Amino acid sequence: MGDWIYMERERSLKGFFIKYLFIWLLGSLILAFLGFILMSLAMQAGYIYPANYGDIEYEWEKENLKNTEEIRMEDIPPLMDYALFTEDGTWKEGTIPEKDAKKAWEVSHRGYSGFSRIFYQKVEREGEVLVLRYSMKAQFADPKLRKYLPAAEEIIYGCVILEILAYLMYMAVRFGRMLERKMNGIQSAIEKIEQENLEFQVQNCGVREIDRVGAALDHMKEALKKSLVSQWDMEKARQEKISALAHDLKTPITIVRGYNELLLESTFKGEDRACVEAIEVSIRQMQGYVEQLLDVTRGKQPAEFLKNIVCADAFLEEIHKKSKGLAAEKQAVLIWQAAETRREIQADKQHLERALLNIIANAAEYAGQGGTICLGASSLENGLEIVAEDSGPGFTGEALKKGKEEFYTGSSARSGGVHSGLGLFIADRIIEEHGGRLELGNSETFGGGCVRVWLPW
């Protein structure tokens, strides 16, 4: 491929993941350290009180609080609440509400505060007990900030966590883009395979698992290339076979037409004359089919269908006349069971006639000398149904599935004549172009094959 080449040591996908994880962890530690430095600088500048500020203030002020005559609000250190009790534990006053006084009294006498970061200290005074409550958290020095914002350490820790999460998202995006870049070669190779361009080479990208996928694509490309070359050779051989067959048909058809033109110049009359004229029409049709077949093998597009309004009854009568000739040629008995329809169909008359005569020719071939061909046509609510049955050996299970495939000649039961496997294939394609369908089956009445054709009105 050549448009992306990475000259780096091959690593596993796990190795790349660990690398990005390590970078994220290192970055997270740096962010946490910066948060610690920021808090330390703020403490040194006096903007934030340290977490143990309450303990320090208590040690400084406890003697003053113990000996002062009266406890006043301004005597209480910053960041502290207080409650004043009698010696028996009755709440007198303070910024600790009376509803919390019992807990403050019990915790201060127990000597510890439990698992919370709220601490209580007591100062025994003459005739009363002062309980101080404070939090072991770094707090803002500014009273307004303490009032409206959470603790300073909570804000800083929260910002650090958010930064770490944001950095995690950034590293995840970078890891995804790295994988996408490494996968570009695989994606390009898949697109080229879809376009049937097999002239490329998947280069290594440095990720072991992706390189294995690339190697598998290379093997698949080579196998596909061999398969396509084989298929192209088979297609070429098939076209050559069709071309040779069509070319060889031209000579006997030309000879037959020449002799038939001599018969037309004779004094035949009546039914004999009609038979000779019908032969002439059929010969011209065969010559047209052969030319179309040769055009297809030469790469020309087949003639487009030119659909016109066709009277079903008149069309079926023409099929009946030509069917007589096909049955007579095989010395088979023809049974015609066409009901009058008085309806019209949209059809390319020439192509549709070709399809039906292919079906009838098959029935005549397999019915053989002394056999029976039954042709029926009936008008349904949604279309015209034409059924061709014969008394031949019938379709095998395989032929019922593959009988409409091109060049299928594998039915051992219906192999009484030499045929190329094109008749039902061509008929099926033509009927599909008319919006109809062709179904294969076996006749319960005559024991041979049954071909059922449906055409829409």
Textual characterization of the structure:
It is a multi-pass membrane protein. The chain crosses the membrane at residues 21-43, 155-173. This is histidine kinase. It is built from eleven helices and 13 strands. The strands form four sheets. The protein has a five-stranded mixed sheet with strand order 8-10-11-13-12. The chain has a four-stranded antiparallel sheet with strand order 3-2-5-4, sandwiched between helices. Helix 6 runs antiparallel to helix 7, helix 8 runs parallel beside helix 9 (349-367) and helix 9 (349-367) runs antiparallel to helix 11. Among the domains are: 52-136, Profilin-like (3-Layer(aba) Sandwich); 226-303, Helix Hairpins (Orthogonal Bundle), CATH 1.10.287; 304-456, Heat Shock Protein 90 (2-Layer Sandwich), CATH 3.30.565. The two termini are 55 Å apart. A hairpin with a 3-residue loop joins strand 10 (372-379) and strand 11. The chain is an alpha+beta fold. The protein has helices spanning 13-44, 53-67, 101-110, 143-148, 152-194, 208-264, 270-297, 312-329, 349-367, 397-402, 423-433, and strands at residues 48-49, 81-86, 91-94, 118-125, 128-135, 139-140, 308-311, 333-338, 344-347, 372-379, 383-390, 437-442, 449-456.
